[in-house]
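yo

u said u wanted the structure for the complex thing, so here. seqs first:
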Amino acid sequence: MQPTDLNANSFSRYPPQAKALAVNNLPILRRVPLSLLPLILGQIINYDWRFPAEQRDLTRQLRYLGALSSASFTDLMAPFAAVELPPEISEIDWVNQPKIFGAQLSAFLWSVNQIDNYHGAAQQYQQHLQDAVSPESPAIPRLAIVVIGQGVAQADLPIFRRLRPHGVLFTSVNPENGLPTLLGVVKTRAQQHPENYAHWYIDGGEPEAAFRSMPGVAISSYGVLAPAIVRELNLTNQYVAQTSRSGTAGPESTTAYVASITPEDLKLNRDPRDPVLEHFEADMLTEGAGTQIFSTTYVQWASRECLHRAQPVTLLARFKPRQRAATMNQLMSRDPSSQPADAEGSLVDADMAAYYTWINQNRLPGADQSRFLAWFEGHNFVVAIGPSFAQGTTADAPTNIKQILDWM
Amino acid sequence: MDRLRQIAHQRAISRRDFLRAAVVAGAGSQLLSFAPLRAAIAAPAKKVVVVTFGGGARDEETFAPEGQENIPQLMNQLIPQATFCTQVVNRGILGHYVATASLATGVYETFNNFAKVAPKNPTVFEYYRKALGRPADDAWVIAPSNGFNLIGQSSGGTFAPGYGAQVILPKHLLAAALGPSAADMNGLDYFLQDNYENPLYVPPSVNQDLQLSRLDEILHLSVDDFTRHAKILSSADELSVYVMRQLMREVSPSLIWITLHDMDVAHSGAYSLYLEGIRRTDRLCGEIWNIIESEPEYKDRTTMFILPDFGRDSDFDASGNGFQHHRTGDPLSRTTWLMALGPNVRQNVTVDRPLESLDLVPTLGALMGFATPLAQGKPIGELI
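structre next:
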């Protein structure tokens, strides 16, 4: 099947909003080369469970493509049109299984040494859209807060080494009431600027008791997800055992199986229900590497994806000690929340993750006005980055977290 | 975005500078002033040990200023004795098996990384054994995961059928030693971890008789000795080095290829475990050199090459997630380094010009005296 063969019936298995979006944009979709189209369909097919920012971006992207002149459209698509796909890839049911198509396309491009060209074309395409459809700046400056190091009495590493050059390192911060103060800011911002999925709290364990529910704040926690994680691990183990017996076991089939696990399979039934967040959490657990077994990886990846997809104005990511390392088989067969923890290793993981969170925040519109704060929990170290902070400086005078937030 | 691009650009342009600086710091004073060849006074090198990292390591965690604390053996023990190539580019598929196979053939292999297939093009082992008429036990591969089982002999069939290397998978030895009741592993299942891109280890169908006969007849180890020693080790790579040492003592092959894999735990997203893997690999590289220097069959006759198969993704490529994977194909994930040391190698020298990872096989051929007609790289003149 080729893109030109698409018709309204092609999308009969799509959820309602996704189907409507695809049908409404059928003339555009039919003109997109096959090497790109399933990647766009991969966004459309999940439209019903996408965050508002993603829905907005996708709609604008399609509107822009529809408004392009024929010559401009052809120019923009030329690098993708030049990719010749073998029959085994073009014959995949790419309308309904765009993920599988994407994986096969990637493997093919690597094998013919075209991955770099394709990667370059994709980046150019994204940049073109970004330049043409100027992204909206946030209503208020973004604020990302990362809390690391719970359970570590003393750090052996130079804390926040990668972040220090970009802001002020405060070395005499009174840690008292640090966490309630930071979470209080999240709560207040959500009250003052209510918007769906614009304010987030991600925790590596159970959410802090007094902040388990905050109106307008999307909360995702590794601790609450623990039963779903155990379910996922069980399903994966069953699949591997089954395919081992039939001789069809392999990394690719296992990865594809895990990616096909749904929020319903994991029983991600929030109260009240929140299908958008449930799908997000299922994506984190089924598409992220290591997110199931290490809470630090979950918080890092969820923060990255939350920033990338939901484009929040407020994010607080709190890392807690992950379980100790073991063999993958052990890690994949035991409840991660009831194992001995590795607090020191988790501090190293989270220190790097704080840096990645800052990088990911900087990829969003309005980055020049963004504020970032990372705190070594229970200790005196905070790094603060933002327009009002000099880069690469240290402040040794006694202060507290509220004061630093006020300076932001 | 602009700020990020600027930071990324600064990292890229300084890469070569800090690698060179690292070598200067490690080497003392002789950067770019060629040291006299030790070969003039030593016996000609006749043996080669190739150590690859099947895990990808980035500059940030190795030779960049902030990474040097992770590689004290490379920095302080090995680099002062080595020629160090600062810019080795891998333009092939960035999967560990296919990339290692490409290193071993000198051609970018294009098979599926997870497929159970042999390299299509002749391997360095075939070139070596056929050209020099060497016996089957003179070329060995010690590899970490089941997928590497077929790396010793190409599938082409026309060049040198039957001239491949023997491949030893330490975890197969251990699985055989533990026997079918491997449920009682006493913690040894650590070594059976296959690879970090496959979420679950599926026990291989090990030919127990073959593996046990290898233990007994080649390595001259009893099952008890082997399992007892395995218990005092802490990783699959340590087990590989232990097997390598035994192989060197008992068989003394002239061409040994060992792939270390511990650092690929980075795929789990735990930065601390990735760093631990690098530190362990660094220590093992020092140990391998010490083994070479302490074994009479190898001392002063052996050239050791160390190189990662490729790097890992940059922190600044939005399509990746930094150190965790090697999927973007960005310059950082494609560019790495190579170190060579031994009697025929100039000490304390850096090579800054761009090389390709495919250059390894022709370089080995030039060094050991055999042709590599189907390999696509070029001999690295500074190493021969």
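The mean pLDDT of chain B is 83. The longest helix of chain B spans residues 2-27.
cya
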